[in-house]
Amino acid sequence: MEPETLNLKSLPSSNELPLMEDFYTIQGEGFYQGQAAYFIRLGGCDVGCVWCDVKESWPAEAHPKVNVKEMAARAQKSGAVLAVVTGGEPAMYELSALTREIKTAGLRTHVETSGAYALTGIWDWVCLSPKKFKVPHESVYQKADELKVIVFNKSDFDWAEKEAVKVSPSCRLYLQPEWSKEKEMLPLMIDYVKSHPRWTLSLQVHKYMNIP
Questions:
Q1: Contact 47, 131 (CB under 8 A)
Q2: Residue 187 lies in a domain
Q3: pTM score, two decimals?
């Protein structure tokens, strides 16, 4: 499956966005791991990660356009205190209206992005997970509260260090094994974090617990 090519003229208005799914669950990764969160997964991505486990999110046209007010209302109704906007690649879209509605509903705004596009919107937390397949926009690095690098092979350790120098000193640094390579890479990652303690090991604990 090939990722779609971004066509700015074809993107929906900022008040309506393609929604693949939204649900209340437990954040399984990174700094907020273990906390309750309402996930809003937007459809559309042109990054093309070979290991992506939600490739069905790639074609934006495959998902219904939903008004941002409705998305925020669903999040509020869940009782969540924070909303995570993910994808796909959410930064493909103008997200000012969505974040405004989420904050008006009383929730924190978190985003998970590859950094492929400059961020729009008002964010309380930015998780940047850069990918080699599409170079991140330079402006995103200094906005990142959390840098999460997926480790697929040994060369990713060096690449992670090159990415880490681009973020602010206060940014949290995480290494996370790609799920299909976890058994192979995890022992190497443990050793790496022990010898490079500024990094923290992140695991997809929701998959261990069979939580969506």
A1: yes
A2: yes
A3: 0.89
